[in-house]
Amino acid sequence: MLAIPSSIVKNMVAHSRELAPHECCGILSGTESTITECYRITNILAELSEQELTRFDGAKLSDLQRLSPEERADIAFQMDAREMAMAQRDIRSKSLDLLGFYHSHTFSPARPSQTDITIAMEFESYRAKLNFPEPFHLIISLEQMEQPVVRAYRIQESKATEVPIHTLP
Amino acid sequence: MIKVRIPTPLRPMTGGKSEVEIAGNTVSEIIDNLGSAHPGIKERVYDEQGEIRRFINIYVNEEDIRFLTGKDTPLKDGDEVSIIPAIAGGS
Questions:
Q1: Nearest residue on chain A to B53, alpha-carbon basis
Q2: Where are the domains of chain B?
Q3: A43: distance to nearest CA of chain B, Å?
Q4: CATH code assigned to B2-85
Q5: C-alpha to C-alpha distance for B85 and B6, rounded to whole angstroms
């Protein structure tokens, strides 16, 4: 179970809608399994040169290379590393933990894609060495714009397992 | 020597190795020497202006070098440098 205040759920949905059709992304902090803060992070993918797309895997890379830089952000995101570091610093100064990452799927369901799983496993490979706790991965789907869906997952051993969300008042 | 952690996307340039040992007294020297030993890496870490690219964080032990003294951050034996791309994904 992951507890999230309704104000943060609304904030993530609003962020997703504001950036649509681009994917949005951000960081969530809190303690144990309760989210208390949300940081919007810039999706820099639209600004990346083609060379920098190589962190994406084969099929995704092919898809991305077919699109213009502006369109690439519709199907993928890359967090701004500086903003991510600033958020991590703020989280630490408040004695909170980095509990999760969120991003939107503009045109697809709220479940992790193969790319999401691959990159989550990449994060998993160095997370403990940098002293980060195991993150929740949240996805906001705007597949039905009027009825956004928010779901949370743990991703372990290349497998995503949904975690129920309890929305706090 | 300093242990440097190499992220998955850069491992083709280190022959698949996830960690390499590199000599250097600062982060900048480490990246320079890493680039000499494994051509192509430096260009992936720095942009055309020689600044760390916007999707890369470099940590010394558990601290981001942006909150130390950046590329001039001094290193001592036993320190570990991690090159970490920021979280990404896609639908």
A1: A81
A2: 2-85
A3: 9
A4: 3.10.20.30
A5: 10
